Amino acid sequence: MAESVAEMVDPCAGPDARPGLAKLGAVGLVLHPRRDNAEAVEAVAAWSAARGIRVLGLAEELDRLSDLAEPVDAAALAAEVDLLVSLGGDGTMLRALRMVNGHNVPVLGVNLGRLGFLAEVDVPDLPAALEMISRGEHVVETRVSVTASVRDRSSTAYNDVVMVRRPGQGMAGVALWVEGKPFVRYSADAIIVATPTGSTAYNFSAGGPIVSPRAQGLLVTPVAPHSSFNRSLFLSCSEELALEVLAGSGVLALEVDGEVQAEVRPGDIMRLGVDLDGGKVVRFSGSSFYDRARRKLRVTDSAELT
Predict the structure, then answer these.
(1) Which active-site residues does the annotation give?
(2) N or C of the chain: less Cβ packing under 10 Å?
(3) Which overall architecture, per CATH, does domain 145-276 show?
(4) What is the DSSP-derived secondary structure letter of residue 232?
């Protein structure tokens, strides 16, 4: 695995931004299941070949890798690469982060889709971005992940964990417990527990705030709540958080980064845990989080100021 040099000090968020990768022995590719990735794959393969870097890809995606990558399974990919390149949209980026969870491997997101908020570069900019990585002109930023545990099942998310009502079922009746004490009970369409990274996803669509990805904690936002309290709540990473499905609630779907993982029923209690070193992403100095937020979320100024 590649080693990082000394960490940069961030007094607010701890060791969040670190200098780039010192050496690369192998690069991995994760592909969007449907979109055309040929140009991006060829760019990574050409850059890697010129530097003697191995290129690995998932065996099940081999038919779309044009024999430019060595086929391996997901476990080997996570264990052997020093950099993982995600070719797709935000969903592909989240899948790549989950794939290398626990392996200390940074992910470079390449946008093949429309919004691509989590991706760092578009395909035309990929060759230049790879050259910047060669020169060390990048940083590796840490991202918080959240682990949701209910009954005998645990799942990890980089965007959000959501308890959502099923069509035709009752509302989501959920009690929010903080530090072992009840705080508020919601009757709503859904309850979102988002990481700071996920604040620009479902949370944003539900009216929740944008939170810096360098923040360390969890954001809880109700969706269409049937109560006077409709505000989001941001909790510190050190505070214990649990969601209890109340007796009058309908059966709820448990979504993890947009994928249904299980059903939760009245009496179930979901406990949330924060991993401050849950994932790593490659970033370049020319593009900040707030630049992307303004551009991709179409943040506009007040009409009174025009």
Answers:
(1) 90
(2) C
(3) Sandwich (2.60)
(4) -
